[in-house]
Design brief:
- By secondary structure, this protein is mainly alpha-helical.
- It has nine helices and three strands; from the N terminus they run αααααβββαααα.
- Strands 1-2-3 form a three-stranded antiparallel beta sheet.
- α6 runs antiparallel to α7.
- The longest helix has 34 residues.
Length: 256
């Protein structure tokens, strides 16, 4: 799913409508040989020294140089954004989030333990395991939901770039998306522990795996809805301010 979403967002960003007069910068043609040289150097170095990350970045640089060379000059900024998204499409960059995924997995167990204590459920956490008086619940890394952090990061970056949000707005939504993944995962694990006594014994061992797809789509959809609402509200607020400044609208009268 990371490959599909990354390719889709990159494709849309490259083909979206562009205003040559409002470009943040232009990527000059003389940069093509430099990008090409860096790409060849990284790709060959990655092949020779078995550095797969350098090899992947080098391939992207080569593709970027070819894309800049054959595209109109006003495509430059969007090409950079698109290839930045394509970088995260590969499984290798996801290793950057290994420490984050491990930490969020442990926080999910701790948060679920606190929620269950509030609900008067006798449970205690032991690493990535929740223990009750009647059953032991393992929260494996593959099904914990924390691997969706990379996918949510990629989707949030794509939505921010597509809506042309400012850089700090995009970072804020990335942090918000990761926080929501953590909260939703705590709710999911807590529900599993509370509902397990009413279900067959094998239900708890497959619940996290079976609900992972719904969990992932819900987390992605929630962030996209929030980013779209912020885009609409902030642009509307800006148009109102510009209308008041240009005397096209009357300023609201505030009560004394």
């Amino acid at each position: 799913i990371r490959f599909t979403l990354g390719a889709l967002f990159a494709f849309i960003i490259i083909l979206r409508r562009k205003d040559p007069e409002q470009l943040p910068f232009r990527l000059p043609r003389w940069s093509v040989p430099i990008i090409l040289f860096v790409g060849v150097f990284l790709a060959m170095g990655g092949l020779i020294f078995k550095i797969h990350m350098a090899e992947w970045i080098g391939i992207l640089f080569l593709l970027l140089a070819c894309s800049v060379w054959i595209s109109p000059i006003h495509f430059g900024p969007d090409l950079l954004l698109a290839f930045f998204l394509l970088f995260w499409m590969h499984p290798l960059p996801g290793q950057f989030f290994g420490w984050l995924q491990g930490g969020m997995q442990r926080l999910s167990v701790i948060g679920s333990e606190l929620i269950l204590h509030t609900a008067n459920v006798r449970v205690w956490g032991d690493g990535t395991i929740l223990r009750t008086g009647y059953q032991t619940f393992l929260v494996p890394e593959a099904c914990s939901g924390m691997r969706t952090a990379v996918t949510v990061f990629l989707c949030t970056m794509g939505v921010g770039m597509l809506l042309r949000l400012k850089w700090f707005e995009t970072i804020a939504f990335v942090v918000l998306g990761l926080a929501q993944v953590l909260v939703l995962n705590i709710v999911r694990i807590s529900y599993m522990v509370i509902w397990a006594p009413r279900m067959p014994p094998e239900w708890a061992s497959t619940f996290l795996h079976d609900s992972l797809a719904v969990f992932l789509m819900g987390a992605i959809l929630l962030v996209q809805l929030e980013a779209s609402w912020w885009f609409w509200w902030s642009r509307r607020r800006r148009r109102i301010k510009e209308g008041i400044r240009n005397r096209e609208l009357e300023a609201p009268i505030r009560p004394a």
